[in-house]
């Protein structure tokens, strides 16, 4: 089945695709905050209509106890591989709202950029994936491979009910491989293939130094302050270089492979510009390039920290409680549970006598993922990118985490190719997130070719070489 | 003029006094938060009515550009000393609201305690002071001394416009000494005289590590995180004992006097019970008793700290900005501006290269205050307490700060006796603040005697011995 007429058809429909993406972005589908429950439901309804409209069958919600996933299938290619096409419809919270130059849920085009929460992560690429399937069905009345569209609703919260969804709908989700709209490009000027991603583990740390808030005039100088104690603990997690200073975490970590280090060096990467783009300060583990730190080495980050009086003016209290949300980006080979345990052990060991330590929000972690270079998914992607870019793609790893990849590998035995169009400069998870408009056309040219290339392989080849 | 009939009159009116205090407490006079502007205005109207009703003259607001003070006078005792009677009508914010067992602005009596925000700090003692003046005017048609009632509205925010009020109304506020309803008792079982208080200085620290929030998958492990940098700075302020670790601040500090150390040792003080009362952890400067740490030595406390994502669920960001509100309780002899400068210098010196440091909210500081033992205010208070308690009072210093004392000394040359009734266990500035109900009767017995004893001195004696 020839992809070229599908590409032509989709490029002619470019503005209609953009309109559909804009409507998708208007829906405030923030999964982490119950205040957005209505936006989540409206987004699911929007997707159910869309998938039915393009001709998928068995369109339904897959409920695992949290925000359900949206599913639809086209299974009319007997003998051809069955491919799960993955995207997610949830987005990060828009906070801090005050820093957005345009409203986060009113998509706005400025200077070749489509600004909106979720434009880059990952409604843009998800829309390209859905439109690709729609294009094949419209032009050929069918696809080169069997398609199971799976659109998750909890990617941004660490996919807490994904395992339950896979358990409940295991038969429905059987397939030979997955291609994901999440996990984007590493460079705007070089074709790249994602062959892996760091893992993720998280916890919330609660530090208590007393049973109630105290007046700093009455108690100041004579008792522990929960904020001081939290600060001392957080300060102990890194050394002066910004390298992780939790020995048990680093000692259990295998060294990066020589191939991984060669691949990391292959991508042209302007370290200074990468850091300058966010006005940041380069830091981290000595002995590794910045790109290696980002993809082959772990990172501990405090994502939020709070305690005491944070309103207007001043309040002279000694807080009794302080909290921090902490995540670990896991390097290849690191076990999430072991890493979280090492972090907890470290925190308990540095906490001063009498300071009460508690943890919450643990779970939903996933290890790093890796795709072998000779895998059919990598071969197919290589041929697509050679054709579109007229040169060989570079193998890269993601610093970010796509838990779905690890879970589908573990529970269903299938590998994932990340084939998103998003680029590193698009301010994902931050104010003024955007998607480069020209990525839409690039995606509409590449995705149909990928489905065509995947059809060349026999179903069993995807698993044999996994 | 005999105080005894006034005491009898006031004790008969005990329940009416309690009713008036309850009405005072219902008014939400939070000075630090503009959301309470209406409550502040209602409280001023309430006080203006009250002072006029008891027979004071020249009742008015004294406006210094912030929340005005409320003023009223009785000046019918020519030749007698003129005494400013000080109280404040503003209160701390009620946050965290969820921890209150009864609503903060619905006064509730339980087990001999009157619960409400401001009950202890300091509407309870302010009410006793006003009722004392009212009692003399009702019973004798006059007071033993000339009275200028001065009720501040910005005590809880460090008295930012108090200097301007004193500048604008300097003539009106001329007096020989001040007695203050703020600054309470040190013990429920021993009579005590406050002969001093620590000072206060503050700043807000803003730490920036980038120009925008970053995705921890894209940048984690390769850039500075503002929360890590803030934590490192805060952790550097104290050593493992909890003692201040800002050398420039401690080196400029004079050692406590031998008399101060003897006085600190004179009050029976159960250190373990004091700390256990709040479920706290004892800490601080080695070589000093807990009571000395609280009154004769400085303290640095972070009152609030925040940055990044603090909502429900998780958000994998690397924050670009983090903030902390910091106050210093100043020991006798420490200069507020010098102390804040030493703190700023220290913070800049420990901040890592590239980390941007900014400060806000500086100003309104005041040094520690001290009242000599032979001062007429101390002599008068000593005689009152000997009479009420049938034994000699102990000299104590406050760990908390009453900026008014320092400002009135500096600008108007007058000394202050703190004669509040509040006790250390009353959870001031914290949820479930309360006032021991039996302090009302004790106050109504003591305050009239104090006015009578002050009348024994010639006006010039208050200044000669200051």
Number of strands of chain A: 18
Low-confidence stretches of chain A: none
Portion in beta strands of chain A: 15-25%
Overall 3D form of chain A? globular
Number of domains of chain A: 2
Tell me the span between the first and last alpha carbons of chain A.
26 Å
How would you state the average pLDDT of chain A, rounded?
95
Key descriptive features of the protein:
homodimer, 466 residues, alpha+beta, Aminopeptidase, Alpha-Beta Plaits, 2 domains, 16 helices, 20% strand, M20/M25/M40 family metallo-hydrolase (chains A, B), hydrolase (chains A, B)
SSE diagram, text form:
Two copies of one chain form a homodimer.
Chain A: H1 4-12, H2 14-26, H3 37-53, E1 57-62, E2 69-74, E3 82-88, E4 108-110, E5 113-115, H4 119-140, E6 146-152, H5 162-168, E7 177-180, E8 192-197, E9 199-208, E10 214-215, H6 216-219, H7 226-235, H8 247-251, H9 258-266, H10 271-276, H11 290-295, E11 299-308, E12 317-318, E13 321-330, H12 336-350, E14 356-360, E15 369-370, H13 376-389, E16 394-398, H14 403-412, E17 415-418, E18 434-436, H15 438-454, H16 459-464
Parallel strand pairs in A: 3-6, 3-7, 7-17, 8-16
Antiparallel strand pairs in A: 1-2, 2-6, 4-5, 5-18, 8-15, 9-13, 9-14, 10-12, 11-13
């Amino acid at each position: 089945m020839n992809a070229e007429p599908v590409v032509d058809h989709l490029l002619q429909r470019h503005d209609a695709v953009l309109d559909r993406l804009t409507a998708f972005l208007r829906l405030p589908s923030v999964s982490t905050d119950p205040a957005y429950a209505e936006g989540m439901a409206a987004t699911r309804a929007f997707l159910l209509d869309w998938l039915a409209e393009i001709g998928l069958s068995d369109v339904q919600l897959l409920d695992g106890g949290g925000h359900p996933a949206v599913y639809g299938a086209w299974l009319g290619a007997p003998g051809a591989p069955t491919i799960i096409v993955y995207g997610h419809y949830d987005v990060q919270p828009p906070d801090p709202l005050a820093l957005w130059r345009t409203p986060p849920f009113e998509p706005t085009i400025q200077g070749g950029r489509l600004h909106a929460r979720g434009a880059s992560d990952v409604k843009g690429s998800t829309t390209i994936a859905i439109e690709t399937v729609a294009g094949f069905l419209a032009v050929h009345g069918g696809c080169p491979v069997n398609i199971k569209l799976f659109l998750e609703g909890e990617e941004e919260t660490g996919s807490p009910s994904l395992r339950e969804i896979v358990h409940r709908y295991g038969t429905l989700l059987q397939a030979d491989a997955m291609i994901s709209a999440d996990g984007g490009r590493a460079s705007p000027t070089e074709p790249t293939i994602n062959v892996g991603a760091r893992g993720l583990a998280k916890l919330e740390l609660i530090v208590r130094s007393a049973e109630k808030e105290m007046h700093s005039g009455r108690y100041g100088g004579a008792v522990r302050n929960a904020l001081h104690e939290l600060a001392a603990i957080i300060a102990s997690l890194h050394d002066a270089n910004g390298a992780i200073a939790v020995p048990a975490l680093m000692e259990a970590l295998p060294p990066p492979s020589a191939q991984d280090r060669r691949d990391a060096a292959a991508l042209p990467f302007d370290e200074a510009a990468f850091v300058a783009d966010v006005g940041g300060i380069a830091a981290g583990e000595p002995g590794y390039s910045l790109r290696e730190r980002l993809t082959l080495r772990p990172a501990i980050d405090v994502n939020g920290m709070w305690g005491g009086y944070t309103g207007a003016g001043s309040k002279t209290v000694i807080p009794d409680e302080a909290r921090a949300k902490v995540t670990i980006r896991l390097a290849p080979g690191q076990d999430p549970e072991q890493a979280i345990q090492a972090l907890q052990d470290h925190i308990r060991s540095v906490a001063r006598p009498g300071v009460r330590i508690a943890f919450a929000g643990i779970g939903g972690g996933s290890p790093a993922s890796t795709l072998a270079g000779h895998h059919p998914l990598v071969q197919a992607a290589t041929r697509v990118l050679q054709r579109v870019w007229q040169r060989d793609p570079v193998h890269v790893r993601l610093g970010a985490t796509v838990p779905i990849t690890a879970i589908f590998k573990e529970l269903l035995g299938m590998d994932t190719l990340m084939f998103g169009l998003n680029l590193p400069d698009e301010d994902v998870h931050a104010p003024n997130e955007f998607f480069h408009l020209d990525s839409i056309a690039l995606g509409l040219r590449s995705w149909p070719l990928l489905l065509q290339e995947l059809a060349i392989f026999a179903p069993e080849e995807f698993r044999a070489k996994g």
